[in-house]
Description:
The complex is a heterodimer of chains A (463) and B (299). Chain A contains 19 helices and six strands. In chain A, strands 3-2-1-4-5-6 form a six-stranded mixed β-sheet, with helices on both faces. Helix content of chain A is 53%, strand content 7%. Chain A has three domains: 4-97, no CATH class; 107-209, no CATH class; 228-244 and 284-462, von Willebrand factor, type A domain (Rossmann fold), CATH 3.40.50. In chain A, helix 4 packs across helix 5 (72-97). In chain A, helix 17 (400-409) links the parallel strand 4 and strand 5. Chain B has three domains: 8-71 and 122-194, Rossmann fold (3-Layer(aba) Sandwich), CATH 3.40.50.300; 81-116, no CATH class; 200-290. Chain B contains 15 helices and nine strands. A five-stranded parallel β-sheet of chain B has the order 2-5-8-1-9, with helices on both faces. A two-stranded antiparallel ribbon of chain B has the order 3-4. Chain B has a two-stranded antiparallel ribbon with strand order 6-7. The A-B interface holds A 36, 38, 40-41, 44, 47-48, 51-52, 58-59, 62-63, 65-67, 69-72, 75, 173-175, 177, 223, 225-226, 228-229, 232-233, 236-237, 240-241, 244, 340-344 and B 8, 24-25, 28-29, 31-32, 35-36, 38, 41, 43, 140, 178-181, 184, 187-194, 231-234, 275, 279, 292, 295-296, 299.
Amino acid sequence: MGTPGLYGGMPEPPGPPGMAPRLLEFADELRREGVAVGTSELLDAFDALDAVSWTSQVDFREALATTLAKSQEDRHVLDVLFDRFFFRAVEREAVNRGLIEERFQGAEGLDLDALRERIRDALRAGSDGEMRDLARLAIAAFGRQGEGSGVIGVDVQRIRRTLGLKGERLGAELPDPDAVPRDALAEFEQHVRRELERQMIERTRSLPPAKPLREFDRSLPSNPAQDLSQVHRVVAQMKRRLASHGREHRGRRRSWQVDVRRTMRASLQTGGVPLDLKYRPRRPRRPELYVLCDVSTSVTSASVFFLSVLHALHDQFRKLRSFVFVERISEVTDVFERERSFEAVSRRIATDAGVADVSGYTDYGRVWLEFLEKVVDDLDPRSTVIVLGDARTNGREPHAQVLAEVAERAGRTFWINPEPRLYWNYGDSVMSAYEPFCDGVFECWTTKQLETFVNAIADIKTF
Amino acid sequence: MSDEFQTIEEARKGLGEAGYLADESTALVTFLAGRLGKPVLVEGPAGVGKTELAKAVSRATGRELIRLQCYEGLDEAKALYEWNYRKQLLRIQTEAREAGWEQVKDDIFGEDFLLPRPLLTAISSEQPVVLLIDEIDKTDQEFEAMLLEVLSDFQISIPELGRVDARTRPLVLLTSNNSRELTEALKRRCLYLWLDYPNVERELEIVHLHAPELDEGMARKLVEVVHMVRALDLKKPPSIAESIDWARALLLLGAEDIDQAMLQKTMSIIVKHRTDLDLVAERVGVKLGNGILGAQRAG
Lengths: 463, 299
């Protein structure tokens, strides 16, 4: 029942036997996922493997991780790939030798309710070995109920629903007696997925092709609270980077200004002869920033992200004016300046900004008109305008020529869109109308993309 | 006294006896660091015991700990060595008349006139030492580049003297709070260890190790509260050291239970910002008041 297109491939021929070629293969896969594995790191890995026992999977994995993965993100990618790589290696060997595991018999006698209870208990206790067996039982019981869809991801979710398993809600006031820990549930799903894949491979006697990791798998697991602190961390990093950025460029300039006072002081050491000239430090130019942030419902999750970016930017730039908008625009610079904590800022904006008029739908056209009116006298070629929004006008007039006027008066205009580029210009998104007037448009829904953007605006001195 | 760990298990036990409960990866990396002679780069949020690990390694191996605390503007003169120019001047003044300049010149650039700073001390020590380079992310990239020579070849070049090679190989730990991306060149030379906040069980063991008099139920509740506090978006989440401090404080106060009132009184031990205090009181304090944690334990 496997579709030949997806699962038709014969297992790829293994290279020469032995450990070293396998490890090189693994390193290749890591490199394909963007982990920079150098030759010296590989040599270290071999050295490390010499020193630990190969029989313990934990030691083996940790020895590889400590020598090959040099950041938290790399480590996460390595963990995912490690599981997949060695799972595939084992399955490939099994297919080659024609080994078939004994199928679980007696699925008819299974009581779904009893099974449900046992799985819940196991998830709460968090015992790994039991989970794998239970995953098999669950698949067997599920198979009896009806044929699977053939798509593993769908089957996993169906099994989860059939068993009535749900994760604990975060921040729930009262613990739900039916809920199980989230981590354990995710682990159980992983077991079910593995078992389904194993069965699929046995049925089709071939390995599915290795797919690159999806962005979703790559990103670190997180909950909303962590997300926010993650943003704060990246922004804090970016703050430092912006702060140290100006420094590198000092000293490149030919014409330095002599600091007479400091030179005279230094000349005391040499008996009043100014041997050692002191120069005035070159101050990096502080740009003027205008940030417009969409806080409507279509970008709810993104606007928390954006507001925290805005919050952090306020620490960095002296001349920063921030605006939030839905139907109308409202300046919130003083809110950010007065309130230090992020919670207070978002509360104030939610209650006092008064940006939604009647419908609560974004009206970009009107926002541009109002914005231009407010700042028309202040915009000059040194200013940078940043728009954070999805460009969804809800069918209203986009007034792109007004944005063009804003962009013309300002030195640079950037647009950050929280939607993937794929969705731009679908539906009521009018990104293409605005794009020609911006000096750069960025998609930005992960902290990594935020960094890309930051690097772009950190070059602000160069214009 | 054992100088180097022979097995991973030995490393774990050694660290444990030195008062540091190491998980698998920490024990393994510590073991490999000694075995391969490579520096270890330890990264993680503030307060997970990165510096403490270096101290524990030093205690467990019986090696002296040499610490280089990094900060913005740290330079070679403070990290590597400096010429003791006062002493050099004295020497010139006392001897220049009798001996010729040539001889004095050779004299004053000798080891006698060198002020060793942490890196040179670590390298030239007779006994192997543990070198801790703390918060490497606080320095600039130039300093990192300078470290490369020390970390890969364990040698320091002094223009006037020549090359100083390591007499013994120090065990090097670098810590970073990840506030700046370190250079690839530095990372390539190091083993990497990511330390995170421990899970409830592990932290419970740690609290138990450092405040053994605290009873089991209280300790569990304490750790659970600390974990709840860490889950909030705080300016500075509580570190492991702070949960230990809190445990000790509760012991001193003779507290019977952690309820809302007790949390109000003592939470300044784990939370150190005014806005954070408000947030914790609002979110965590209320839950304690309802006795939800107690119910969870009973159920």
